[in-house]
Specification:
heterodimer, A: two-stranded antiparallel sheet, 6 helices, B: about 180 residues, disordered N terminus
Chain lengths: ~170, ~180
């Protein structure tokens, strides 16, 4: 059966565990994503990103010599990055709060905790497909806007340019 | 808040960069992602790989054992997190929960700046080995072991935090 919408998408899996790579590839294939590239660390993945230009990335966190966080930062911030807007799903067994926050700060789009299920992976892909994120450009960060909700009665401080565009009276 | 701060960050709306899919493709993609047929197919794939993944978990448990024998804590840490990540997908739910308890312990002691205690690590190693090498009909025992280990780790971490707080208090008092 044809994958339809997913047919033309190319994915990059960055994972040092061969079993997990195979599993992720199979789950992507089941959606109709058949063009899947694999790397075992961030360095090789960055080369594949330049050469093969995938549309989305599934990346592990712990790898050597370049781990998933350094890879995500390279994708988002490097001048030589071919696609700083590419969605990155970090698939990780490291689910401690400080690690999830580090992934977010590196510019990861979604975090998926292992053990993975088909439902959890497809839910994250759905987020990327259905709700593409705005990006924030700052001196020390480039990546998806970390604010998921717009709160109309937000009473905290405003720090972003667009918060001021329609209100020149703010000082 | 000042306009100086406003200049620090700039928002690039999602419409400003190329979309992954066209609106039509997006609708088709979402229908596919939500379809029961897709999930069933993917679940069959996972089930078909369970035996292979179980072997992978057993390899990781062996790595854990080797690392423990030479007190290679970074390898212990890495193997435990890998086990936690793979075990449930391999149908070894109790093994995953035991690994999860130990991951929690390793991260907590690391945050306190302490080395893991060998005795605590050995208890988890024994539990992981037994749980991973037995079949699922013993999972209930595995779950009980995971619960007991969780209580042990909670008690141990409370002791460590108490003694750490006491050390800080004595240091502050001395200063």
């Amino acid at each position: 059966m044809s994958g339809g919408a997913f047919d033309h998408l190319k994915a990059l899996i960055v994972e040092d565990n061969q079993h997990m790579r195979t599993l992720l590839r199979s789950l992507l294939n089941a959606l109709g994503i058949t063009l899947v590239f694999e790397a075992t660390n961030g360095e090789d993945a960055f080369a594949l990103l330049r050469d093969r230009q995938p549309d989305l990335i599934l990346s592990d966190l712990s790898m050597s010599p370049m781990d998933g966080l350094a890879f995500a930062r390279e994708v988002r911030m490097s001048r030589s990055s071919p696609n700083p807007y590419i969605p990155i799903i970090m698939v990780t067994g490291h689910t401690e709060r400080h690690r999830v926050e580090a992934a977010r700060d590196a510019g990861v789009t979604e975090v998926l905790a292992k053990p993975i299920t088909a439902g959890s992976l497809y839910q994250r892909i759905g987020e990327i497909v259905d709700k593409p994120r705005a990006f924030v450009k700052a001196s020390n960060y480039f990546g998806p806007d970390r604010r998921r909700l717009r709160v109309d009665d937000y009473s905290g401080p405003f720090r972003r340019r667009e918060d001021f565009e329609n209100d020149l009276s703010v000082e | 808040m000042t306009t100086k701060n406003a200049a620090i960050a700039q928002l690039v709306p999602a419409e400003a960069y190329p979309p992954l899919l066209s609106p039509l493709q997006r609708r088709q993609a979402m229908a596919k992602l939500r379809s029961a047929e897709t999930i069933a197919k993917a679940s069959r794939i996972l089930a078909a790989r369970a035996a292979e993944l179980r072997d992978a978990v057993l390899e990781l448990v062996a790595q854990f054992e080797e690392a423990m024998a030479v007190a290679d804590w970074p390898m212990v840490y890495s193997a435990t997190h890998e086990i936690r990540g793979l075990a449930a997908t391999a149908g070894l739910g109790a093994t995953g929960r035991i690994a999860n308890v130990f991951c929690h312990y390793l991260d907590a002691v690391a945050q306190l700046g302490l080395a893991p205690e060998t005795a605590i690590a050995k208890v988890h190693l024994n539990a992981l080995v037994r749980s991973a090498r037995t079949e699922d009909d013993t999972a209930r025992h595995g779950d009980m072991v995971a619960q007991e280990l969780s209580a042990l780790v909670a008690r141990k971490l409370a002791e460590l935090k108490d003694s750490s707080t006491m050390r800080d208090g004595l240091r502050d008092g001395a200063a």
